[in-house]
Specification:
Elements lengths: L5 H5 L21 E3 L1 H7 L2 E6 L9 H14 L4 E5 L3 H13 L2 E7 L5 H9 L3 E5 L3 H14 L3 E2 L5 H7 L1 H10 L5 E5 L4 H13 L5 E7 L4 H4 L21 H10 L3 E5 L1 H12 L11 H12 L8 E6 L8 H4 L12 H8 L2
Parallel strand pairs: 2-10, 3-4, 3-6, 4-5, 7-8, 7-10, 8-9
Antiparallel strand pairs: 1-2
The structure holds ligand F0G.
Amino acid sequence: MTYQGLIQRYRQYLDLPAHTQTVSLLEGNTPLIPMPRLSRDFDCELFIKYEGLNPTGSFKDRGMTAAISEAVGRGAKTVICASTGNTAASAAAYAARAGLRSIVLIPEGKVAVGKLAGAIAYGAEVIQIQGSFDDALTLVVEITQKTPIALVNSINPYRIEGQKTSSFEICDVLGSSPDWLCLPVGNAGNITSYWAGFKQYNKGLPQVLGVQAEGAAPLVLGHPVDKPETIATAIRIGKPARGEQALDAAQESNGKIIAVSDAQILDAQHILASEGVWVEPASAAGLAGLIAETSQGTLDAKGKRIVVVCTGHGMKDPSIITESFKAPEVIPANYQALIDLVGN
Ligand code: F0G
């Protein structure tokens, strides 16, 4: 049978209520891409789980198919979320698919253009908050407690159910869990989901390396960050809703949560692109963390099977690239000018 989306594929493993009515854009089933050069550099077997290839360009579609399917089944008419951008685009797309109204709250001026464009294109009502993602989340929690509007942030348990499926896919492709799983951590729904997924699937457990940005690293500092700041706007979060679960995943797996600088994130983004995988900055944090740990000698990658999760596509945040690089050369439209420039 042709692929019909992740609820269809993994229904028996997902704790979704009977009233669930599947709303799918054929999310999931993303490639696990071998990275020969990085593997050689680390003397390991390294794969990228390329979540940027989901329908709206990020891993959020896994949780959103589940959350929207449940919300539709119970008769919700409107959904809402706070977002640094990707959740907003995903919620908007799945709500559009289901014929629901969607409202998204985003931090003013801090959402990458590809994400904002997505949310608008899919028809969301986009509201900018004079505050951070954390302030927006507080507001959407309050409104969903006082009205019938459905919350589709990862506080919603069905988001976690959907996002577990990435662990299942990795085990299905590799035959077992990898030795290490490296991924960015923002609101901490994804790390929580992966860990729950591996535990449930019984194909072994990875050690988990969760990576925050230095300016938004509450789980490393041990306290909330009032004014989180990083160029990786997707993970610009100071008070992760599932922070405790993220710390548990790191501890239970004998892994860790660390912070990397914006420069290390941009470096990792560049390294990935130079092996053919362009991801948005936050998505490169997992690799940045792996590089930092191996070069310090605090993680031994040698001979290991390592999966680095790249959570969102590079096209989500094109201005990070266009603003920091030299504009392309302009030449007259003739052959001589071309050959003078490129040589042979
Ligand atoms: N990577 C990307 C590209 C993201 O968009 C996010 C979160 C994360 C990593 C972190 O995942 O929150 O589950 O720990 N983005 C959310 C959003 C907050 O609103 O799109 P997390």
